[in-house]
Amino acid sequence: MDALIQVQELYKSYQRDTLEIPVLRNINLKILEGEFVAFMGPSGSGKTTLLNLIAGIDKPTSGKIIIGGIDVAELSETELAVWRSQNIGFVFQFYNLIPVLTAFENVELPLTLTPLDKKERRAHAEAALTVVGLADRLHHYPRQLSGGQEQRVAIARAIATDPAILVADEPTGDLDKNSAEEVLDLMDRLNREINKTILMVTHDPRAAERARSIRHLEKGELA
């Protein structure tokens, strides 16, 4: 089976004055469609950098990142922005919801960048909120929701455009134990029931256990 994601001889470094600081070294990785992968490792090991490179937020120093047959490292910034909007759903630690918008409006927001008309956008947003169990919270503002509910709205926003890949950076890092379990249950369901490919960075072993495979990074290299 062809891999959905192929990372080949990936290097990433940052320049600080005349000093080159290596972050990732010789990363080779294959991820099949429908996998749920957790990336673990100590702080500074390059987990989030790798996630950002795969998601097209950052560009590698060298190497290939082939997703669905496209080397995203070769795309221009404009092409990359279009590609991200069509292929990647983002879930962050701190939700990033817009406080003056309702749950529905937050989820609908990325759909305004698609060719969908208003009626279709509404249907997609309502369906996404139903999937995450918040169909009764459409008109609530973020301040009226618990942390776990806010993160579920963020996940609804991420899946509303039906992206090929869901990337989650410490999605339970700001949640209490019960809320974290609810969010992990939801991600597990998205993976198993609708075959969503999920890449998750986490420092929490309990969260990582929900993934189907765990990859460890040490000092910028895959262990």
Outline the structure in words.
By secondary structure, the chain is α/β, with parallel strands linked by helices. It has a single domain (5-222), classed as Rossmann fold (3-Layer(aba) Sandwich). The chain has seven helices and ten strands. The strands form two sheets. A six-stranded mixed sheet has the order 6-7-8-3-9-10. A four-stranded antiparallel sheet has the order 2-1-4-5, with helices on one face. α6 (177-194) links the parallel β7 and β8 (197-201). The protein is globular.
Uncertain regions spanning at least 5 consecutive residues: none
* Cα Rg: 17 Å
CATH topology title: Rossmann fold
Estimate the mean pLDDT confidence: 91
Topology, number of strands? 10
- Adjacency order of strands in the biggest sheet: 6-7-8-3-9-10
Number of helices: 7
Largest sheet: 6 strands, mixed
- Estimate percent helicity: 25-40%
How far the N terminus sits from the C terminus, by CA atoms, comes to: 24 Å
The CATH C-level class name: Alpha Beta
Please, how many domains? 1
| Oligomeric state of shown chains | single chain
Spatial shape = globular
Order of helices and strands: EEEHEEHEHHHEHEHEE
Sheet/helix structural class: alpha/beta
Beta-strand residue percentage: 25-35%
CATH evolutionary superfamily:
P-loop containing nucleotide triphosphate hydrolases
CATH architecture: 3-Layer(aba) Sandwich
